[in-house]
Amino acid sequence: MKRFCITFVEDFPKYKQLARHIKKLIDKDLIKDGEKLPPIRVLAKYLNVNNVTIVNAYKKLQQEGYAVLKMGSGTYAKRREVIKAFKKEYSETFKRISSREMKENIDFTGETTSSDYFPLKQFKEVLNQVIDRDGAEALIYQEALGFQGLRQSINKYFWRGSLEEDDILIVSGAQQGIDIASKALINVNDNVIVERPTYSGALTVFNWRRANIFQVDMLQDGADLESFEEVVKKNKIKCFYTMSYFQNPTGATYSYEKKKFILDLAEKYNFYIIEDDYLSELIFDKNIKYESFKSMDEKDRVIYIKSFSKIFLPGIRIGYVISPRKFKEIIQNSKVNTDISTSSLMQRALDLYINKGYWEDHIKLLKDNYEDRYIFMRDYMEYKIKHKVEFHPPGGGLSFFLKIRENYNLNCRELFFKAKEKAVFITPGVIFYKNPMDGDKYFRIGYSQTDKDKIVRGIDILEQIIV
């Protein structure tokens, strides 16, 4: 019963205080999922309150999905359904809001660059040139590996000609790349390592494959190597999924030393690395140098995945995969079995866009604009909200990962709903964890879809909500 002991404060309904206290106990797993809560009369007597206070507290817990009443038996804690219900509500929220409506709100959830920066005139130009040049052939399916011209351009401009043409497989974005790589590598009950927290789409894929998922905490310079090595020593690991630059959601970037150490472990313990190169184009901190796992890979241990959708435009749905020789054929077959081919027209247009030098100009434009926003948001959060949240400036990318300080009772789910009421949208931390409650004090906010005015208004609102 000691767990339920609470000191009530004046001028705030006791039943609400008690409900909040019990929710925290459930969230922290101090009350187990399915555990029976104390009988109303027993708890009322223990807390020296009337029965109605306990009845109302239990009703509030039921309304919020934290408890279930079983007639004739009592009230039971309900933890898993809370997160399941929240994730559904979170997903439904964005299904109900049109992109036009979202622009009118303060959208801190963006993971891709703003359409305001999309070079519509230039892309329209290259689309017309492709159609004039290639005619109807531009609209038909191409070879399974992808349009040869685009693969040549990727090799030339991004890999300095160090690859063979058939090393590159064009895919429909990073998510498909993760999916086909997992189909090639992972069978039921295979062991995989992911960063903690990590991209929810990758967790979904590995769960679909019915893999055993081990987690390693993310630090400011990459995964915790002590924990990582302990996992690979004790378990036969099949692969490690990582986002090497501006990891989603933490924003952490791997140091050269950690990448080298993990590559050595991969060779020693015979596992493979799935590298999701997320937003490495947007490096703002001059101390961060670009060197991917793949570029350092001397033992052919890395499956490299890169999406153009995040940095260019989500609608084009183009990315590419570079795989070890051992898995090249099975990954290519997996792509064919998934959707045969990625849009031929968009591949050809992107190829021409890169060859005309437009890509380089576009990235410079994005870096200049987003670095300005990054610095502005970082500095404003330092000034306005750092007494209520903790965060580490990532030095690039499109977002910050924040933790609500422990002396504030609010969790990220409550923050999401309260912010939504004020037309501010955040990404709650629970969606990035295998055990969602581990992320209940965290949230991600991005600046890709917000100007400086919205950044100020949004941060001001969050500061007011966190009490």
TrEMBL record:
UniProtKB keywords: Aminotransferase, DNA-binding, Transcription, Transcription regulation, Transferase
Key word Transcription regulation present: yes
Domain spans labelled HTH gntR-type: 12-80
InterPro entries in the cross-refs: Aminotransferase_I/II_large (IPR004839), HTH_trans_reg/aminotransferase (IPR051446), Tscrpt_reg_HTH_GntR (IPR000524)
Record-linked Pfam families: Aminotran_1_2, GntR
Gene Ontology MF terms: transaminase activity
Coiled coil: none
SMART domains referenced in this protein's UniProt entry, alphabetically: HTH_GNTR
PANTHER family xref list: HTH-TYPE TRANSCRIPTIONAL REGULATORY PROTEIN GABR
Name by which UniProt lists this protein: PLP-dependent aminotransferase family protein
